Each structure stands twice: as structure tokens, then as C-alpha cells.
Amino acid sequence: MTPLLEISNLRVMFPVRGADPVVPVDDVSFSLAPGELVALVGESGCGKSLTGLSIPGLLPTGALLGPATSVRYDGAELTGLDERALRPFRGQRIAMIFQDPMASLNPVMRVGAQIGEAITAHRRVPRAEVDRRVVDLLAEVGIADPASRARSYPHQLSGGMRQRVMIAIALAGEPGLLIADEPTTALDVTVQAQILELLDRLRVARGMAVLLITHDLGIVAGRADRVLVMYAGRIVETAPTGPLFARPDHPYTAGLFASIPRLGGSAARLSPIPGTVPRPDQWPDGCRFHPRCPVCVDKCTRERPLLLPIERDDHLAACWVAQGNVA
Amino acid sequence: MTQLLEVEGLVKHYQSGGFLSRPKPPVRAVDGVSFTVAPGETLGLVGESGSGKSTIGRNILRLEVPTAGTVRFEGVDLATVSPGELRALRRRMQIIFQDPFGSLNPRRSIGASVAEGLEIHQMLPKREVASRVSELLAEVGLDPAYASRYPHEFSGGQRQRIGIARALAVEPRFVVCDEPVSALDVSVQAQVINLLLDLRDRRGLAYLFIAHDLAVVRQIAHRVAVMYLGTIVELGAASTVIEAPRHPYTQALVSAVPDPDPRSARSRIVLAGEPPSPSAPPPGCPFEPRCFHPLRDARCRTERPVLRRVAEQDVACHYAEVIAAPPLVPTS
């Protein structure tokens, strides 16, 4: 199947006067098929959010893309497009939702009007039709009594309802891809479960691809088709969800699993990864995980491992030891 | 066994409005909560935002004055002691917060912050303070040479270690841990949980461990109290409450914890709706509007269930005896 989204050699750089640029996203490549749910997992500062933002060209001021970077959506190259040419890809064909809906919603505008704005942003729609679509969208994201809720202001809604409104806004342009950046991190666990079920239901009903950016491996299990694990600006492992959870090949992924407190079994002591995540201006040489790695060999400190298949064609890890290539 | 901490009928209401506007009904943040903590014991207090769990922590330490109820620490009713006695008692009861950056003075070196408690309580001669600070930093896994650095130079996990060193400086017997790891990355979170376990074993500390993450609480708590809308709905041994919960809310909470093992077969209960407002709690069972249990009836809507012993744990549900737990926790 032709991919819906194809990212290759994504590099996001911040130039530093009189020094090497800081490169928080360094040579990231992956693709998404239509209707696929792919999880991009990593800890804070690993570059996962910047990766998401760079897809519709929403980089922060001062950031530059690397010369070899290519972002193709539905066959169209997005890098190098000007703001005007990017418009149909922002909000309409590619939509985004974020962790804090309050920061994205206008506090002095009724939520129905904000959804209506998203409907008319990209096409002309008659007034009556807009109102009807607003109510339909609110109903689709599971808001009870949508006609009266459309007249609410954001502060009158709970966190879970606000995130549902954000999802309704995202759906307004009928996107083929939804980028969801930590969509449930600020929510309580019972509400988190509701939002994740909703995203999954919408993906199936609309055939929409979802890139789920999260720090929480737990919410990925049983939902994502594939997982991309990021560490220090690079993808270190990728596999279908089942095989990844059954047998992580990269020591970082294995370390993440050993760090997660679990409900089942005995409350055994956790085995955390020693040390802390390095800062983007202090990425280590060679494999960037090597200072914290329990199986590090001399080669890891010098040479960068590439993302290569281990045992299965669709299970790749960037680790010299997993690849059996330590000489 | 004599209890270190006894909380009885604790109530905290916040009044809102009333100065220029009409008074509103009070927010019933904590609505009649009782529990005990034994020396060396960890009680986990679990609940979602707005359930009142952090309010309990602050009221126990009398950082806020409870609306009603008693809090006894080492047998002493904290409401009856003089300010001087309270200050002396506070040396033995400390608190660690979710955001240590918010509780560290950005203009003081971390050594000075850690030493503050030692100086206030005049626990050591001045010349011994610096070496004691070094020992404390080493005990929480930090390089003692960091004492002269400032909070902004540290990562989130390191700041939490500083917060812990600061709490330990005054040799407490009891520490309220208010969401101490929820702001940390998962690899660092596990480091801090292990540190808290080590310190508990080494110093015989008792913790009130407040968290929204049931899996984190499972790692550290001996007993667990589950809160919903200002009340405890279930209380018992951690393994019992998590593996065989009897309150429908606990069952939903356990089933909603994301499980990083996709092969485990367990039922998922997705609750409808969100918790009601604590300023207008339902007259009967606080969980009734969201309860999914087929036995739910008119009694649940009108009569508030009391926390009572059912099987191995205390449960506040009229039908706890007949509610069997579905398989919620993977058996591995």
C-alpha cells in the first residue's frame, strides 16, 4: 500500500552563533499507511513533539530543516512549500490535537462557534449547514446534549469535554491524518480511557490515520498498530506493537519496560535505567544511549548504529549488540 | 499496635463567593475521612483530580485548618497544641511535593535549602551543618559537591531528590508524599520510587503516599485507600484492593490503568461521564451517577453508604457483599 505520510531524513536544527547547531531531531524516517495508528513513544526532550510539529511545517521560530529532509503527504512534498501552499495541509488534511486543550481553545468564544470556524476555514458552507455540522461533530465525539453544549464556553467544560471539543475541531476538515500529541496526559485515568476509545472508534469509522505521540507505553499496548521508540532525537526501535512488547530488541526499550510499575504479579522492585536523558546540546557520540546502557561495548561509544532489521523484517533496532555486530 | 497517625472524621469545606456575590454552596473537598498510619507503614491514597487526596495531606500537616474532625500524631491532637508545640511536631512530619522546583527557593543554593530545616530546629551546631548536608545529598544519590549549585541547574528527577533530602534533614518519622513522581519521566520515576523504598527501610519512615497512578502506589504502599469525591470508597491491603476490588469505582479505576502487556486478557470498564462537582455531591452514593453495576437501585440514589468491613477490606457500597471482582489484573 502506498504510504499516506512518508518522512525521510527529518532533521530539525537550531543554529547557534559560533558553535555547532543544536539538532533535537536528527535523521528520523518513518511512514504511515492510511487508517493506521502509529505510536511515537519517548521521554521528555527526545524530539517526539518536534517531529509531530514538523509534519505540517509548524516549527518554532528559528528552527531549520536539514537539507535532506523530506515530508511527503499523499504524494505531495511539504518541505519548501510557502505558508499559503501549506494551508490545506494544516487543519484540513492533517489535523493536530495537543495535551492542553485550554491552551488551544479561545476562552471568550463559544465552543460551537470555534468548531464552526474550523468547518468554514477551508471551504464555503451555508450558515444553516454549519450549525448542523457543529452539532453532528459534537455528537460524534460523544458529547451529550450537543445542541446546548455548542453554546458553552471552554471554562464551563471539564478537561475531558474540552479534549472532545478539540477532537471535533480536528475532525471538521475531515483530515486523513490526525497527529495527537499527548492527548490524554492531563486527564484522569478513567477519562483517559474514554478519549482513547473515542480516537480508536473515529479512526475505524473514518479511515483516518493517527500518529499518537506519547510518553506512556501503557496506552500504546492494545491500540497502536506499530510503535516508534525515540531516544535523544533518533528512532532507536520500531516494530508492530505485539512483537515490540513481547521482545524489545533495543536496551533502551527494554529499560523503559523494566521501569514501568505494573498492577499484576508481585510488587517487585523496579529496575530503572541509570542516569538521566541527555540534553539536545549534549548528545553523546556513537550510540546516544551508550552512557546509560547495560550492554554497551567499545564500538557503541564511537560509531552510530543504524536502524536495521533484527530477526523480523518489520522489527528494527539501532543497536550494535542486538545486531550482533560489535567487532 | 499504637498508630503514628490517626485521622478521624476529617472534613474540609471551602467557602466560595459571599463577599460581593451571593454565597455559593461550599466545595466539599474532603467529606468525612478516617484512617490510620502505623509507624513504618505506607498508606497509599489514590484518586482522580478533585477527589480530595492532596487536601487531606495538607490538612494533616495543618498547612490548612480542617473544617471538622481530628488528626492525632503520636497520640497528640494537633488542634489542641500550641504553635510552639506544633512547630516541634512538624519536625517529625514532613511533606514532599509533585513539583520540587516550586518548593525550592531559586536564589538559594540547594545546600542552603537542605540546611534550612536543620537551622530552624537548631538540630546541630553550625559547624556540623555542612557535613550533614553532604551526607544527606549522598543518601539521596546526589554528588555532595552539588551543594553550592542552584535549583535551575538540576533535572526534574534530581530536584525531587533534593526535595527528599530537605524533608529528611530534620529526621522525620512520617512523610506526606504528594504525587512525588507524577511529573517525572518513566525511567527517572522508577529511580525515585526505589529511593523512597530504600529510605523507608533504612530509616523506618511512614509515608502517606498520595498519587493518581494505581500502578505506582502498588509499588510502594502496604495499604491503599481509594478516594472518590471527598470520601474513601475502599480501604485495605494493597494486594487485596488492587487484585480483588469490591467497590465498582475501584474496579473501574483498576481496569483503566494502562497495561503495558498487550497479551494480557483482562476486562476493561470504560466509565461514562466524569465525577460530579464537589460543591453539589449526589445525596446518596457519590459514585451512583456513573455506577455501571446492575444492582444499582433507588437506595444508592438516596442513602450514602458507609465504609464497612466486607471480606478482607473496608468498602463503602451497599452491595459490596454480592459484587464479585471481574478479572482486572493480569495474572503473570
Profile the largest sheet of chain B.
8 strands, mixed
* Oligomeric state: heterodimer
Side-by-side strand order of the widest sheet of chain A: 7-8-9-3-10-11-13-12
Shape of chain B: globular
Termini gap of chain B: 35 Å
Number of strands of chain A: 13
Q: pLDDT below 50 for ≥5 consecutive residues: which ranges of chain B?
A: none
Average pLDDT of chain B works out at 89
What percentage of amino acids of chain A are in beta strands? 15-25%
Q: Nearest-angstrom radius of gyration of chain A?
A: 21 Å
What are the defining features of this structure?
heterodimer; A: 327 residues; alpha/beta; eight-stranded mixed sheet; 13 strands; globular; B: 332 residues; Rossmann fold; four-stranded antiparallel sheet; 20% strand
How would you portray this structure in words?
The complex is a heterodimer of chains A (327) and B (332). With 327 residues, chain A is an alpha/beta fold. The model of chain A has no long low-confidence stretch (mean pLDDT 93). In chain A, a hairpin with a 2-residue loop joins strand 5 and strand 6. Chain A is globular, with a radius of gyration of 21 Å. Chain A has helices spanning 48-54, 83-86, 101-104, 111-120, 127-140, 146-149, 159-172, 189-206, 217-220, 241-246, 251-259, and strands spanning 5-16, 19-32, 37-41, 64-65, 70-73, 76-77, 94-97, 177-181, 209-214, 226-231, 234-240, 308-310, 312-317. By secondary structure, chain B is α/β, with parallel strands linked by helices. Chain B has a domain at 5-92 and 172-243: Rossmann fold (3-Layer(aba) Sandwich). In chain B, 31% of the residues lie in helices and 20% in strands. Chain B has helices spanning 53-60, 83-90, 100-103, 110-120, 126-139, 156-168, 186-203, 214-220, 238-243, 248-256, 298-302; strands spanning 5-14, 27-37, 42-46, 68-73, 76-77, 93-96, 174-178, 206-211, 223-228, 231-237, 308-310, 313-315. In chain B, helix 7 links the parallel strand 7 (174-178) and strand 8 (206-211). In chain B, helix 4 (110-120) packs across helix 5 (126-139) and helix 4 packs parallel to helix 6. Chain B is globular, with a radius of gyration of 21 Å. Classes of the chains: A alpha/beta (327), B alpha/beta (332). At the A-B interface, helix 8, helix 9, helix 10 and helix 11 of A face helix 7, helix 8, helix 9 and helix 10 of B.
